[in-house]
Structure prediction request, 565 residues.
Amino acid sequence: MPLDLALLNARVRTLDPDRPSASALGVQDGRIAVVGDDAEVRALAGPATETIDLAGAAVVPGLIDAHTHPFKGAIDARGADLTGARTIDEVRRRLTEERARIPDGAWVLGFGLGYDVFAATGARGALIEDAVGGAPAFLLFMDLHTGLASPRALELAGVTGPVAFDEQSEVVCEDGQPTGELLEWAAMDLVRGAIPELTDDDRHRLYVAQLRRFAALGITGTHAMDGSLATHDTLRRLEADGDLRTRVVAPFWVTPDTPRDEWVLLAGHRDASGERWRGGVAKFFVDGVIDSGTGWLVEPDTEGDGTLPFWPDPARYREAVGFFAGHGFQCATHACGDRAVREALDAYRATGAVGVPVHGSLRAGERPGGRGTDGPPSPASPGPSPDARVQHRVEHIETIQPEDLPRFAAEGVTASMQTQHMMDLAPDRSDNWSRRLGPDRCDRAFLTRAIWESGALVALGSDWPVVGLDPREGMASARLRRDPSDPGRAPYDDQAIDGLQALLGYTRNAARAVGEDHRRGTIRPGFDADLTVLAEDPVDVPAEDLMGVPVVLTVVAGEVVHRAG
Ligand SMILES: [Zn+2]
Prediction:
């Protein structure tokens, strides 16, 4: 059978030690059929083969962002983009623009707000009231863990004073009056509940548009770090419509108030999957974020915060991890603070197993015959990972105690890290995050290199929409330890990884982080034809220049889902 797609005249970086480079490859039936030179691949082409001359562009395994919020993000990242606005005047200017753009009486929304904007005043809704002309306004801070509501928004939501929650969450009040600052989701939801609902079709349009952006940035797969049964329905509809341009692993988000009955219900959906998506993962938050004092720390931060877990009863978190791990789920836990990281590691250790077996859904669509083999995957039928188990993972790991660092490698836990979070950190430690932690803990900030060198598996991702989605920025920030667009800035520390490691973090390691490296993350015959084509090789190009390298082509399961120009 002739090839469906032939990519010629390229620099192929396979990440396959058996054949690290090639100039061409061919795709058949959604999989890589041949990796070789132009003549070899041409020989397998037929009249129906789509042949693309890449004119020397670089082909790498399809980029996988190991931590995003694609669906929540598509809804949250609406309204004024406040990313990078460093002063309250700049925030006001963008809000006034947004107010002029939307109908009278509509809610003014915004996202990407920075904490440093309010360093002198504290976060207060009254500060934006004039800019939005008295309209109800709700702004999300860049980490999605804090919201800011205008006085009119609080009024419409009926929020008039302190509120008690089951989880770590707070309506910040002064003299009994809400300031507009809302810590964590339960508090934010009080106000968000007053915003007029989107229709299902509105949401769907936002999702489709967002998935096009994923494809345009060369992303072929992502781990969507929040999800529910409704997310599965969304994925089914997107796939049925041919709009699922990115592969999605969609964990269930288990919160402190998720009742045990629901655990049982969710467990029944462990193997839910489609051609390009699957579940099988449970996601927990064991703390919040350092910036707002909700990160869980071994010692309080410099403002006396950071002493509380997100689960008021950590024993129940451990019980939930035990339940889901015991039902064959991979577990992923958001843990920013050092105490939270330790808690997640302890909970995983208490499950008694390093990792959980790879389940049927992981092998969905594979041909029989390749299972249980110990050797490398055969070209015709890639088998499961050699040990057929997948490790639990900890997300973020913004700071860690030295004695806990070796536990990732020793206890078989994946470190899922997002270095774009460091882009606003100041090398002199004057930013809000660094000030709160103080110098000692800043020396243990986002220890990408140290954790990598300890032998642990490090997967990289963005955490979009908390930061930008662009994997070129993700790779560059991992290599630079600063904002790649700010060449004058000194790096935060010496924890940089190199260009090859950054690419591995976005490809093979990200695939391995969900037990899929036996069929993705490497360009190799028999593997899925998920490919990213960039004008330059992202490993060779200096990190400073990476953002300017065009994405030429994005291929998922052999389908061209994005083509430049
Ligand atoms: Zn996240």
Remarks:
- The radius of gyration is 23 Å.
- The first strand starts at residue 5 and ends at 8.
